[in-house]
Amino acid sequence: MRFYLNELSITGLPVVPQLLEKEVRLFVKRCIMMKKLGFKELRSHIYPLNVELAPGVLLANWVTDRSSGDREIKSKFKSLGLNAPLFHESEADLTAENEWSNFFFKDQKAFGIAAAYLSDSIVISFATHEDWSLPQIHPVTRQFFNVDKGSIDNEELSVKNVSTFGHLLENRGHCLERSKKFFSLGDWRPGDDPLPNKDITNGTFRVSSFYKFFNTLDRQRKLSEAQIMGHKVAGLNNYSYDKGLSKLNTTNNHIREIFVSNNLKGKKTYLSIDVEKAAFEVCDFQGVHQKEILFDGSENGGQKLDHSIRLKK
User: Fold this and answer.
1) Are 8 and 110 within 8 A, CB to CB?
2) What is the pLDDT of residues 75-94, one digit of tens each?
């Protein structure tokens, strides 16, 4: 998935080197968080490294400067692909190119904002102005030819925006929906990879933080929180809750919450929430237990046949 640079937000960056360095580092860290949410590629109206942060100072200068900044952060930033322009020549025709140029924000052409809207994606901004201080940019004006009127009309739009870490959390739901659209069920073999979207899951739901929180709870609260998180993780990883199987396998002493994989080819896999540990029991197409995994996808135990599930009465 792609997200897009709001080139309009570059105006207003501080020219004082220390402040510029701080702002760029925060921007790059937000880009890295976007990658954890499944947005693997940053696109821009111009090649991102050629973005002029201040007079005579390119983003490339910061990335390649070995005397300052965090090398690990810079390396992760470069791993985003940093591709330009907004679309490859093979993807675009004249009509599409015209459409990119028909978006405006306060009378300025807004290429990155246009790309995010047309792709149902998100724009990332430097926190340089109050215009970018909200998790969505509004109003964005789109000009179009009204066939009925025979004239140019305007419509006002809103575009998802990230210029703070808080915006990442507020736009998390949109990120989840985008992730589901881009995942190919046809290629998925759940027996080999039970949680195919675990990177997105971990970034979106902050699973490591969840376990720190989970371990502080009393037993009754743990049961509830494990079920809530288990449903979220299973859903994002292309499983559907099976009410019938859950009821069939639930006893007075053991609550079962069971999910079935939605893969299009191959054999099904079943996940059953272990509410005591906040984990999944992974069972094969016959309901035979294979292993236990945590919500972040890491293995937490081997096969235990007494953890298998019934598929029929």
Assistant:
1) yes
2) 777 777 666 555 544 444 43
Number of residues assigned to the chain: 313
- Gyration radius of the chain's alpha carbons: 23
Report CA torsion sign: 218, 237, 168, 49: positive
| pLDDT tens string 273-293 | 998 899 999 999 999 999 999
β-partners of residue 240 are: 260
CB 285 within 8 A of CB 267: yes
Tokens representing 286?
């016959």
Q: What is the pTM of this model?
A: 0.60
